[in-house]
Amino acid sequence: MNPATLLADHPLVAGFTPDDLEKLCAASEVRTFEPGETIIRRGEPGRFLGIVLEGRVEVVGVDPAERPRRLGELGEKDCFGEISLISGEPTTADVKALIPSRVLLIPHETFSAALAVHPPALQHLARLVTQRLRQQLPQAPPPAGQAPPGPAEGHVATDVKVLVIESRPTELRYTYHDVNCELHNREGVVEGLGTEQAQHTVNALRGKTVTPAPGTREGALGAILSSLTEGEEPLKTLNELTVIAHRVPYGGESYAGPVTVDDQVISALRGLPAVAPPEAPANLEVIELCRRLAPEVPQVAVFETAFYQSLPPHVFLYALPYDLYREQGVRRYGCDGLAHQQAALLAAEHLEQPLVELRLVTCCLGSTSSVCAVERGRAIDVSAGLGATGGLPGPAWPGDIDPAVIFHLGRSQGLSLAELETLLTQGAGLQALSGVPGALGELTAAAEAGSGRAELALELFAHAVKKLVGAYLAVLGGIDALVFTGSVGESAAELREHVCLGLGELGLRLDPGLNQAPQAAGSGVSDIAETRSPVKILVAPSDTHRMVASEALAALGHQALAAVFLTRRRPIPISISAHHVHLTQEHVEALYGAGHQLTVRSPLSQPGQFASEETVTLVGPRGNVERVRVLGPVRKESQVEISRTEEFKLGIDAPVRASGDIQGSPGLRIEGSAGAVDLPQGAICAARHVHMSPEDALRFGLRDRDTIVVRVEGGRGVSFRDVLVRVHPDFRLDMHVDTDEGNAAELGADAVGYIDEVERHG
Hints:
By secondary structure, this protein is α+β, with helices and mostly antiparallel strands. It contains 25 helices and 37 strands. The protein has 4 domains: 3-136, Jelly Rolls; 161-325, Nucleotidyltransferase, domain 5; 349-545, 2-Layer Sandwich (Nucleotidyltransferase, domain 5), CATH 3.30.420; 570-762, no CATH class. Helix 4 packs across helix 21, helix 15 packs across helix 16 (452-476) and helix 16 (452-476) packs across helix 18. It is globular, with a radius of gyration of 29 Å. Residues 137-157 have low confidence and may be disordered.
């Protein structure tokens, strides 16, 4: 029987469409094993997730004396090999066929990519991993010991470098992404094309630089490419690039996804109909220049309009002569497709539901603005029309407008067609109504500052958005979430409030406090709805160039890496771990009296752990540190964790170690209310680390004992290197730094960090 048919109801592929499942099976291998034949051999790198399609297999490990020990049997639809997805360690048992058996072997990278867009499947795998890890780890989370051997083969490759280029009429924007080390990332723009005042602005880790640039498109592109390869820049040659990804505003009806650029694609882009936006020729020119300047580097075109190729004809057609569509391509193409697509993916991750089960309305509000109805992951309506100037009003265009207004202006003002086009695309819109120059962000600032006309323009805009939200709610027959994204959608609380005002009866109930101060969850998405709101109201971060890079990587076959690349923008909560003590029960009683038990004062971020009411005084050769909190529960060995500042105060030199690694560390005296204990060793300066559940690790593409670099943004932005990843079923996502590190970075209670680099695997 077809593997896809056998697995259709398997929880490991929950949420997969039949097409998704067929693709997964096509990328996998079905093998038949005879009785006694080994499927996976102990000690070999884990490469596959296996599912028994037919037959029975046995799992054989070894006991502490290295004697074979039968661990169990697996039957039809049971899986194996999932632990190596998390641990990165070689397999710990043999898997052998008991009877003739057919097995589906899914490469780790293939399955990791599928998990990224199917949250229920990821949750099932995480539960399975958790269950089996608990069987292996019956005690409390183990201390960090020696790192296991290097990463297992099949781990997601990250030596990937992507250049994203976006060509506009008077400027060339770009971002450079080093997937393994985002510290090397940069973004830049050459502005003033076509003039003698063109300049190249680069924002990188070392700061911002502004230099003169050639005013031609070819010269500007040459300056950008040179800036990546000259001197100590991130690339030695352009051939180190994995891909150059182009953000293309228009692909007509030819492209429903990203495409690798070849001569045929170039020919098709040259033949786009006259309805293509004005930037299309400049965009094509840059693609052709990149092919000439970097001929060995793959080029991928990622289209803003691709997301809307799922629109049905009754939505994308206008009530015009049909021949205008058939012969000239006059139809609704939409805009901001990548932003809407990214917002939908993030919403599904946040809601922990498959995208194919959700009904969403996404509002992308920024330099261009549009509203989109998304059903089961597919766009079914969008406000923007033939171009970005349709639908919502923009900075310099009125959006949808009665044609009678255009005819009247032409007659009464004596305007030609060209003059009308200039008026309606450059001299109208929110700027003209409000008198406030600039984009939507400037308008909201002017309204908050008390400008009456700006307030009027903002109300007009919000009303237009609200009408579309209501219309799409009707089109979808109800929604699961309303999602705000885009530079203004993320930042303008007042605008979001205007849009949601009065929609409570339709199930959208905004929480004013959360709206003013959104709180990002692990997905990076904030829920600003009231707890009782039937419909979620979400704020999703927008990073269109990252979406372009992810789409380009997927087009080249790096699906798992593409998914991880997006996920690593998820924030990691950061906590300051102040000095504290862990004690054995013997030492608890020595310090506080026979039979004494630690008293819970408050729970900690990790389940089952708590700060106790008990405190101790640390006594060193040079001085004391008083009122140091004892953390529970009790441990097998007593341990003291202090900062570097406290080491000086005590007069000891404590090594930087992972919790539990105390061999050879200095000792000190601990005094309690009923006695004292002299520790021969146990004082350490805790290594910075991040706790992850198996589900978190799967999302980030990380494994236990990987080390990463975590960047903290803000006024005193800092990057923490050598952050140890700890994966355990009982962990919640949280990074711990000590008091000195937290103070130096001025970390507050709501501090978060972002993964910049995977320094070492395992």
